[in-house]
Specification:
4 copies of one chain form a homotetramer. The first copy, chain A, is α+β, with helices and mostly antiparallel strands and 370 residues long. Chain A has 3 domains: 100 residues, Cyanuric acid hydrolase/Barbiturase, RU A (60s Ribosomal Protein L30, Chain: A, 2-Layer Sandwich); 131 residues, 60s Ribosomal Protein L30, Chain: A; 112 residues, 2-Layer Sandwich (60s Ribosomal Protein L30, Chain: A). The first copy, chain A, is 28% helix and 25% strand. In chain A, the strands form 4 sheets. The first copy, chain A, has a 4-stranded mixed sheet with strand order 1-4-2-3, with helices on one face. A 4-stranded mixed sheet of chain A has the order 5-8-6-7. In chain A, strands 9-14-10-13 form a 4-stranded mixed sheet, covered by helices on one side. The two termini of chain A are 19 Å apart. Chains A, B, C, D: It comes from Bradyrhizobium centrolobii. Chains A, B, C, D: Pathway: Xenobiotic degradation; atrazine degradation; biuret from cyanurate: step 1/1. Chains A, B, C, D: One of its GO terms (molecular function) is cyanuric acid amidohydrolase activity. Chains A, B, C, D: Belongs to the cyclic amide hydrolase (CyAH) family.
Chain lengths: 370, 370, 370, 370
């Protein structure tokens, strides 16, 4: 029986503070603000430490949604999962993707096959010394399973994208660990972002049975052959626990959308992008497949750590003027944009243990014909 | 009768000063330095005004070739056409492409169809006040026809890529024009590069009959609907005339290579890239076509001047941290790299009148099976 | 008789969205929010077109002040003049300077000499075709005189810094002018910022008698010898008129602060910075002058348009990786920071007609001993 | 008795490949190429890993000097110490400083006081696993003493600037160490540059008695209170040993130049710059001191690792668009340029153990009146 209905809509933005598109849909009744579960966005900052477009976008959305939800902006931020990925290099276009979930309407008897489903879960708060280590991995794995349950997904093969928000270390947090006589995985705030992202991704891999559960602390950021094919993680200063968003297909969903994915083995893996499109019945742009429509693509990108792509040297890691994450997003965004026929896709950087080294997961959501 | 043999080889470089790959091929006899006609390279600078990797690469090549040609480095620079395009953003990989031409050997009777041919020509020196205007257009058109003759190409449809080096204005040159009572097209050195590139590209379009010959000065950089589908132009401070390199197919060539092209209508035009590959018998990577092999792809890229790609806003033109040319090369390089299966492709920025606004020509050279 | 009391306080910020410092002072009663007339801030973006830290900072301040003023955030933005200058390169430190004005308390009889005063005025809305031209110059001059009146300043020699917010052109505005059969000064949005800043600065120069009033449209951005020694202008998209803030000394002010200024003739004019400090009784850091304290320094910086500083070539204008405004702020910020003993100074870029080419005004506010 | 004569001349360059200034002086006889001992230069690259202007400048100088010295370019590079520092941010101006040494002429009897002297020495080649550790420290200390002897300097107080070129690790070198069963200080090529610079600077400090000789491996890059007040070190890929250049004053020199120094405790330490100028009889620009003339200033700059300068937050370390070394050079270059009255000064980044954290040494060479 179809119990939930999941909606997803991509909305272009005119700037990081622009909420007009979402407000118009709420005012017209197209979106019920109470149904909003998560918002994934691309904002036009540099995607680095000093990218303030992410917090600005979240602040603008929370302030705009607050009166509609009769909550304070702070309460909105706790209720809805906002994940903003900075960096719209090249053809990438700033936008937000809004996920809603509600009870299924009557009349879903005609819906066939598994449909798009979304589930969420939180871990407990972590101690600073747990970040980037086995505790974060194990707790994340547990939360992924809980989110699968929330999404009505039993089979790991039905999970196609797991987006995680995770904490990072600050000097205060590092000191607090030290006061307890404990050392953190790193003493660099910037470096801790990679540790937290990596451990979170490994947690996804453990939960889905992609790797064995006995991951050691030393494997994080070192054993590059351990990875999840569907994890996408980003760290932020505003929380001390992991927020897990599972996207997949479920028989309990009456959604008119479907999700699929593939894994890019490197940054020029056009075959993987085509396979991901194909998995939801789409082809290379312009998509001719009758009735099916692309909603959005979600992918992770990174510069190959070994300095080359298919035997040819790349220069992303040696560029003192442009960070490698900006290079990687621009290039992978160009490829995916070209195959998708649009630059309004979610390509995010920093892919530790998210796909193989230099590659990353690529998931596609399609709207099915009525 | 096949009178000439044209060779082309792509050589990876370890840095802008690295000439070891070419020297190894000369030492082994694979390349006769006397046959070298032109070298097109991608160097790893920023591709902007202060990109010194281009002149460094040319200086290193001239110094290394000088003893082999029994010429001074300065004489080498005049004898061989060196065109260095700065900027290997994203997956783009630094390399040079060396074009050679020699008399055809005996035994070319079995060669079928038109084959890769190369021709060169020079315009007269321009006055500074002629740059970016009709004089430069007309003289370039004349030189393109001469280069076609040199290449043994009669039909404009057999021309697939025209690479041009053209002058730019300096304050000295602007003053010299002023002393004659004449105004230059612009008083900005940087701006003059676009004028010179644009007028040169229009010259190609006139020569090939792509547009009517009556181009007015006001059309340069303004009438965006006037363009050549095969022109690729770059301006440099070291010369006052245009150097024209025509690449096409000719029945007089005994080359084992073939060239084709298509036109990207925007930066995400995957169909055009696929068509260009297809025009020389290649498919999307990994190319399965029996016996045929990709040698290199030559393309121009630019940020769409209207600020959007297929209706979605891009942010390339508003980025104060990364120039739009770097964004555009990264994105188009990602797309072409993905479809070609290699980042060692020649994607160059600054595409005034070279393809439609936001788009550009894309040419492919393939090696035929023996 | 002393009729007004002007206060000024510099508050460090932890990020563009940080309002905690100001809120603490309001909560403690140190600042009455109703007295706030203007806020000048340095935010840590790139200071370019895509610097969103400025609007984020204004949005955060308006949202935080709204309940204290019983106004909506939009109304706060209209009531208080917010001028945010992006770019804290080098040692520059993000901060805001809050100016307050209230009726003078009793007991100002002992106050000697002219003291810090602030006045404001607005021009009428401009037509797009008036920007960067004589209409904007003349109206600005009129508003400067009105703001001087508001500040209780009669003698132009008592004016030491005039901060102006001015409009810019957008494509909509340019089209609107076209629909009326009129051409705008430029068709580039980015270029219009310089035109508007330049015309506004010339308006200041006219008002203060620094130049003759018969400025022609052609002089804007061309006649570099026409400039104001105290103008600091910045253009923004959110308004169509000029907001003028005059800072000077007045006998009607009972303020415990004093302002002075000098003009930097180039970016390394340490003598001018020392003279500006000296004009309010301060020396090179560490300031030993009894009782007097530095509050803040306000300066404009730009890369010398002729490409050299005192005969030595600079590379700011040719750098494709870092915009010249960022270079100039970093260098002038380093000099002023070194002489002032603090990086929390207001150094802003884009100095058209604001001081001589390559130079700019530098004003200093000091707190006098009790 | 005066046995040597040391000359020093600063020559502006028009680009990294420009050798015309030096060639003109050689052609005119002003410089005897055989006397050239060392060349310190500022080139206009980004100063980072992918700054090719340094090697381009060295290649151009070696090629140009080769015929004059009847050596191959490679031999020139071994004979003369070339130290190129990339990055001319802000007002910094590209130039080279050429140091020459020859036997003193007759008629030096009238020369009073200690005068500018230069000495050089080399360490033995290091094993990769020795870099950044006590072996490099001890060997460098020994070489500093040897270079002092070469310069005719006995008293450490007469040493005012020690410039060192030192090796870095590459993946090949790291593997070679591993093959011997040894671990290197770091496995990052980029990171090894800091280790090598730091250990070399500590070697200077040991040699001059600034710190005790018992430095442990763990102190390198960690014990920030250990530093030399006169060390300036830069690492390069082209050598496996340290080249040490000592600059000081000696009674055996008949030079018409004098050198002095001070230590900047932070990036805005104007007092230290003034003290350094004063130590050779110069004042703040414009220098009025009779007869004495500024030749050049040599300084190291870095962003304060604790994130603030005199209590105010700086944003250099969080900027993903501009590296902190570029910020720091721009700011310190602005301050020194302002006090010196010229941007043609040598300000170099990366100051590990070279001065206190966030600060660095600043040395001044003056020409004495005849």
């Amino acid at each position: 029986m179809r119990t939930t209905s999941v909606g997803v809509v991509r909305i272009a933005t005119k700037g990081p503070g622009d909420v007009s598109g979402l407000m118009t849909m709420i005012d017209s009744g197209a979106i019920d603000p109470n149904d909003i579960l998560a918002v994934l966005g691309k904002t036009e900052g540099n995607g680095g430490v000093n990218d303030f477009t992410r917090e600005y976008a979240v602040a603008a959305l929370c302030t705009a949604l607050a009166p509609h939800l009769r909550l304070s902006p702070q309460e909105v931020e706790h209720r809805i999962a906002f994940v903003m990925s900075g960096g719209t290099e090249g053809v990438l276009s700033p936008h937000i993707t809004v996920f809603t979930r509600s009870r299924a309407d009557q009349g879903t008897a005609g819906v066939a096959g598994k449909r798009l489903s979304i589930g969420m879960a939180h871990t407990r708060d972590f101690l600073p010394e747990e970040l980037g280590r086995s505790a974060q991995i194990a707790e994340t794995a547990r939360a992924v399973k809980a989110a699968m349950g929330d999404a009505g997904i039993a089979d790991p093969a039905d999970v196609h994208f797991v987006q995680i928000k995770c904490p990072l270390l600050t000097s205060d947090r590092i000191e607090a660990a030290g006061a307890r006589g404990n050392k953190t995985a790193t003493t660099s705030a910037y470096g801790s972002m990679a540790y937290s992202r990596g451990a979170s991704a490994l947690g996804v891999a453990v939960a889905l049975g992609e790797i064995a559960p006995d991951i050691r602390d030393e494997d994080v950021l070192r054993s590059h052959d351990l990875f999840s094919s569907v994890a996408s993680t980003s760290s932020g200063i505003e929380l001390m626990h992991n927020v897990v968003i599972v996207l997949g297909n479920s028989a309990s969903s009456a959604s008119e959308f479907e999700i699929g994915h593939a894994v890019m083995t490197d940054a020029i893996d056009s075959a993987a992008v085509i396979a991901a499109l194909s998995s939801v019945g789409l082809g290379i742009a312009p998509q001719a497949t009758a009735g099916r429509e692309l909603v959005n693509i979600f992918a992770k990108a990174e510069a190959a750590p070994n300095g080359s792509v298919r035997g040819f040297r790349h220069t992303m890691l040696e560029d003192t003027d442009i960070s490698s994450t900006r290079h990687a997003r621009a290039a992978v965004g160009g490829l995916i944009g070209g195959l998708a026929g649009t630059g309004a896709v979610y390509v995010s950087g920093g892919a530790e243990h998210q796909g193989p080294p230099g590659g990353g997961p690529v998931a596609v959501i399609a709207r099915l014909p009525d």
